Amino acid sequence: MAMADTIRVNPIECTGHGVCAELLPELISLDEWGYPLIDPRPVPPALDRDARRAVAACPALALKLTRSEKAQPVRNSAGSFSPGGTHPPGPPLGRTPPEPPDN
Ligand code: SF4
User: Fold this and answer.
1) Can you give the pLDDT of all 103 residues of the chain as single tens digits?
2) Quick one: 2 exposed, middle or buried, by C-beta within 10 A (0-12, 13-18, 19+)?
3) Residue 84 gets which letter from DSSP?
4) Is 19 within 8 Å of 54 (Cβ atoms)?
5) Atom of ligand 1 nearest to the CA of 63
6) Does ligand 1 come within 6 angstroms of the Cβ of 18?
7) Which of 29, 64, 75, 97 is 20 to 30 A from residue 7's alpha carbon, by CA?
8) In this structure, how many other beta carbons lie within 10 angstroms of the beta carbon of residue 66?
């Protein structure tokens, strides 16, 4: 399974310096108070270096790169793909799966 880094901000530690958005505008913008809005998608390989630079430059040590498994499409028993995850989807909400037959 592929691994990917995602940027996370600790909102308690963040002091709104905005350095991160200057260094990585492709994935970080600032809200009206100057606090970062982080793109939750995995960091593209082309931006990996800039993402590490933004994490290192944060004066409050509030930015982190977290490694996670990249969601892969999964084929279910009906042959269609679910958009991600590591196992086939369960029954629709509000429905219970059928009981296995007694032997
Ligand atoms: S550089 Fe760090 S402290 Fe400044 S806005 Fe970004 S995450 Fe917050």
Assistant:
1) 567 899 999 999 999 989 999 999 999 999 999 999 999 999 999 999 999 999 999 999 999 999 977 655 545 566 554 444 334 444 455 555 567 777 6
2) exposed
3) S
4) yes
5) 7
6) yes
7) 75
8) 9
Contact indicator for 73, 82 with CB cutoff of 8 Å: yes
**For residues 24 and 51, what is the distance between their CA atoms, to the nearest angstrom?**
6
Using the structure block, give the residue that is written with the tokens 């940027």. Answer: 7
The two three-digit tokens of residue 80, written as one number: 């269609």
> Is the CB of residue 20 less than 8 Å from the CB of residue 58?
yes
Does 62 contact ligand 1 (Cβ within 6 A)? yes
Kindly report the pTM of this predicted structure: 0.67
CB 100 within 8 A of CB 34: no
